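Final report, closing paragraph on structural work. Over the funding period we assembled a curated collection of sequence-structure pairs, and we close with a single example.
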Amino acid sequence: MARIRKSILSVSLLCALTAGLVLPAATPVAYAATTTSKSAKAAKAKPAKKATAGKAKAAPTKKRAAKPAAPRKAVAAAGIRHASYAPSAALEDADGNLSLRSSVAFVQDLNSSDVLFAKNEGAVAPIASITKLMTALVVVDAGQPLDEMIEVTTDDIDTHKFTHSRLSVGTRLSRADMLHLALMSSENRAANALGRNYPGGLPAFVQAMNAKAVALGMQDTHYVEPTGLSSENVSSARDLVRLMREGSQRPLIRQYTTDTEYAVDVAGRQQTFRNTNRLVARSDWNIIVSKTGFINEAGRCLVMLANIGGRDMAIVLLDSVGSLTRTADAQRIRQWVQREIGAL
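Its predicted structure, as stored:
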């Protein structure tokens, strides 16, 4: 019996001990389940962390890729420095020719009649307000009184391009003042008023313009009105040299085309008009005759007779793009001619 009791006791102790070992383990199992649940959530969150880590790892790669941006800025800055139309730009291209941006360019030494430079010289193109040089020739040669008063009317309003004018309808100026403003400031209403007040009116005036062109041997030239607003007023570089040479023999045309500014009374107020060619005000230029022009079809135009290095030069620049291109081209021509003369 004693042995049985000991066996029972041993079994009981064993069961109790086993129960003590197993039962307390239930809590850790439940805890483990909770931990597993949290771990599962954490596991779901981990990919996001991994993705974030992936981005973090990729970030240095992007930073490395971004480093070449600095050279790009340097290249752009270099491009800006070299993109210049100023006279300091190279005078000659890679082939050694005078580098000009105007579509038509022509340079002739009037002392020797030698053509120093020609680019598209045979092109017959719209000449815009260069037309006014012929307008001036016809007016001056007509011998009409220069002190006669002329009035701006609605007939002088631009119906071609609808350009603005500072000469309001009703403005009265002398024929000389109208001619002055037409040549110096390229005033369209002044030019049209001069044509209207020609004997026989505008039709007779335009006919006289074309007759004068024929007399001067300007075979590529044709006019339909006196302002240059019509793209049907056309000419060539060589013809425009003939026109300038003829105009240079009229003191009034030489004076009016090269004056820097001129004041007149308009509607009871004095207004100052300025030359459309900024080069006439430059002390390093000796300009004899000058005229600018612009309409969309003609581009920016500039013709001049100028003394360069002691020689009279005719310069024709047509269809320049940009407001400064024709001036920059003229500057290049002067520098190039001075260099060539100095080399003789």
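The first helix runs from residue 2 to 66. DSSP finds nine helices and eleven strands in the chain. We thank the funder for supporting this effort.
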